[in-house]
């Protein structure tokens, strides 16, 4: 991006993703290097905001325990019913006991995505470190759960018994590869979507400094913001439903 | 390599080069806080929010089921009440019909009796009247006979005959009777 | 040499971004076919939206990979 800077206006679409110390004045100190694991950074702050938003919706919103729900309570109930039905439909009856875990993932990703859309905020889910952790938790959890529940029978899902015998070893290799690619695509999809959306918005926002195209740029930012709202919800949904699909392999036994 | 010059230029421009996502020095911090956040959310959901919302939803569905059952019961009651009402109405109608018939019969009987009594009275009256008429007629006949006898006697004597009272009476009587 | 490397980097990033077009075609194909099927049998459509999104997610993931390559070329190489 340096050569863009030379032409007079600079767009730094990636600067919004920089992790920095939160209680730190950038004019006097270095806020970005040598960040220890325990320090309060903008990641910490926005994750705390995510937690608070979830608590506000799910705990504070439902405090009335009303038979006729208030608006916030009915939003919480809708999300509950939506995810519960998804878990039940996709993983079957045995998967329902992992519902709190799936709900945690969904709510965290949804609220992190939505809070990230507040101008000037920090999108925690656009970071590969975060999404890879989330995806690895699902991947390792599903694999260990499958092995614990089905023993070595879990490995039977790589042996496609409906295919001709000669093809089976080849298919097994492909299945194994696709199995291990799962956490990669699972995490990169989420981070990539959010990173791309926010970067594109930033690029168009940068174009707004050019008088000739600024009306177009402002309109484009508005339109992309709407699209990003959709993406934020859809990606949370997709991450969750893929979690359910993977979970089905573990609880539903070997598929064929 | 090429990146060194690039990074130097970027540093001069006031922002760090490369993707912040790939800066592994911040990963520890991010992952730590992510795990803290997830654990907090999980515990809150698992032990507070989800049981509460689940209870509310179950409560609501049971309330709805109960209300529907109660509504069904009330509907049955209403139907039974309507049935009873209709039965009572029918009975009352039948009763009213009976009473009306009875009253009618009573009135008829009364009427018949009165009519019969009136008939008797009328018969008595007419019999009496007839008696009187017969009496008057008889009276009138006698008077006519008397007048005829007298007239005949006068006529006989005027014609120069000698009036025989007995024969004249007999002749007049025979004529009047005839 | 630095100029040449930069040039190659940007050209490579641009080429990698073409992959996103493939993802766009794939997603459009899935959505279009879903719509065609849904219009033919609207009663079954609601139960298949989950599959729709999973399919879109898979198709999109591959495009995101090429986008990632583009980003890596732009910022990380």
Question: Could you characterize what this model shows?
Answer:
The complex is a heterotrimer of chains A (256), B (178) and C (77). Chain A has 256 residues and is mostly helical. Helices cover 64% and strands 0% of the residues of chain A. Chain A is built from 7 helices and no strands. Chain A starts with a helix and ends in a 5-residue tail after the last helix. Chain B is mostly helical. Chain B has one domain (27-177). In chain B, α2 (27-158) runs antiparallel to α3. The longest helix of chain B has 132 residues, at 27-158. Chain B is rod-shaped, with a radius of gyration of 67 Å. Chain B starts with a helix and ends with a helix. Chain C has a single domain (2-76), classed as F1FO ATP Synthase (Up-down Bundle). Chain C is built from 3 helices and no strands. The radius of gyration of chain C is 18 Å and the shape is rod-shaped. Chain C starts with a helix and ends with a helix. In chain C, 17% of the residues are buried. The model of chain C has no long low-confidence stretch (mean pLDDT 88). Chains A and B meet through α2, α3, α4 and α5 of A and α1 and α2 of B.
Please name the two chains that share the biggest interface, counting residues whose Cβ lies under 8 Å from a Cβ on the partner chain: A-B, 57 and 44 residues
Whole-number mean pLDDT of chain B: 85
**Structural shape of chain B:** rod-shaped
How many distinct helices of chain B? 3
- Give the biggest sheet of chain B: none
SS class of chain C:
mainly alpha
- Give the helix/strand class of chain B: mainly alpha
Protein name (chain C): ATP synthase subunit c
Domain V-ATPase proteolipid subunit C-like (chain C): 11-73
Main location (chain C): membrane
Pfam families (chain C): ATP-synt_C
